Amino acid sequence: MKNVLALPLLLALAGAADTAKRNVLVVISDDLRPELPCYGCDDVVAPHLSRLAGQSLRFTRAYVQEALCAPSRNSFLSGRRPDATRAWQFVDHFREAGPDWTTLPGAFKRAGFQAVGCGKVFHPHLPPNWDMPRSWDDRMNATWADWMYPSEPRCANRSTWCLGDDDGDYEDAKTTATALALLENVTAEDETPFFLAVGYRKPHLQWRVPKRVAALYPGGPDNVSLPAVDVAPEGAPGLAFHMPFAELSAFEDVAECGGPGLMAPTAAYPESCQRSFRYGYRLAVSYVDEQLGVLLDWLDDHGLDEDTAVVFFGDHGWHLGDQGEWEKFTNYENAARTPLLIKAPWLPASFGKTVSAPVELVDVYPTLCGLLGVDVSYVAAESAPLAGRDLSGLLRGGAADDGHVALSTFPRCVGGENYNKNHARNATYADWFLNDCNDVPRDLFTHMGYSTRDERWRFTAWYAWDGAALRATGAPVALELYDHAGDDGACGGDRSAFDYETANLAGDPVFADEVAALLAVLVAKFDIPHG
């Protein structure tokens, strides 16, 4: 009888021990839109992401809080939205707003995990972005210096993409090698679980990949599809757009295609150029997929695949000519939406399942803590609470909140000499020219766009910006409403998920009730003083 009574206790202790040994691998890809085979987009080759998706819960509507690298990373790694981090561009860092905040890796470090990372995790600009020693157990063994001072050769003639030697020097390959070395180190003593964050720079420009990757795309650029709609949504305000295409415009093949300075959102690059750019992007996605496969193989080969949660996502999406836009820098679906895969190998019932309800990258922090049993109740005493929701119940079979609304934001800086010089070139889309805030102090922003996404609608309101108070002010100066009825987040069928935002319905009286209701939600969610 004593042995029988002891059995449940022994099993419980064994379960607790198993939980203590569970690890976390977070993989972040830069500029990655969910145009992947695991999202029904068969034109892209990414077998390792498909393999991971088959063992994961896949989120078809996962949204970032701002479609720009630094503010997005400041947000999901701190677990707070940009309105809390006060970091909407490259100038500011969340530590200014929250010196006491515990980050995602910091929470696992505090819970006794070995917290290590490599590659582009926090955005590498200011020294605080290393976030040492609050978040990490060891110096970030990142290839960050190689990104800032690249040893990777550049493409000839400053092209957007090119093919290099198969055994050449590639930043993301260095990141993978560093990750494997870290894994060897943190698993040398198997009593302590690890939290490893790996940040890949691609498919961020420049798209230089090994020659072998091109074999995945027979026919080259000529076989790459074009966007179904390559001009601006009808009735969209100029503030919605980004110009110039600051990243693309640095490359000579873009200039040969007409260059962004010659464009308006009612025009498009020549088809041959669009195919070329889209081809280069796909090459880079497939290369990241290859690197992910190396990490997954290592876990398999070392018997850690059953004990390691794996999370994969992008820091934001990317426009590939859809709606006349390229790059990120907008509140549109194609910039705000990213893939999100969460694998909890001890919850196999979640494998291959999908969640269509809107979720956000600020949810990743509390979700991982929930999956691994990491207590973050102490965060409530910090100067701002975590903004996301714990979605770990979904991996355990719980129901999704279909009524949740995802939130994103993006600033605009309209004015200055360059703006005035270009203003007369296209009066209809004047706000579209040179409205970049990436390196502008936040008190000098002129506008802020706030966007909500529910299961059907994307709704965006643009406000004038009060630089002294650092918040929106007055009534909206422009509204946008886009209908996503029928959008399943996939590329197949009669209409791709990337082709829905083609007409702004906000000014149509037929949708006046929807606009009023969605504006009320937006004002409440973002705490905007509505004038």
From TrEMBL:
<protein>
    <submittedName>
        <fullName>Uncharacterized protein ITS1</fullName>
    </submittedName>
</protein>
<keyword id="KW-0378">Hydrolase</keyword>
<comment type="similarity">
    <text>Belongs to the sulfatase family.</text>
</comment>
<dbReference type="GO" id="GO:0004423">
    <property type="term" value="F:iduronate-2-sulfatase activity"/>
</dbReference>
<dbReference type="InterPro" id="IPR017850">
    <property type="entry name" value="Alkaline_phosphatase_core_sf"/>
</dbReference>
<feature type="signal peptide">
    <location>
        <begin position="1"/>
        <end position="19"/>
    </location>
</feature>
<dbReference type="InterPro" id="IPR000917">
    <property type="entry name" value="Sulfatase_N"/>
</dbReference>
<feature type="domain" description="Sulfatase N-terminal">
    <location>
        <begin position="22"/>
        <end position="374"/>
    </location>
</feature>
<keyword id="KW-0479">Metal-binding</keyword>
<dbReference type="Pfam" id="PF00884">
    <property type="entry name" value="Sulfatase"/>
</dbReference>
<dbReference type="InterPro" id="IPR035874">
    <property type="entry name" value="IDS"/>
</dbReference>
<dbReference type="GO" id="GO:0005737">
    <property type="term" value="C:cytoplasm"/>
</dbReference>
<dbReference type="GO" id="GO:0046872">
    <property type="term" value="F:metal ion binding"/>
</dbReference>
<keyword id="KW-0732">Signal</keyword>
<keyword id="KW-0106">Calcium</keyword>
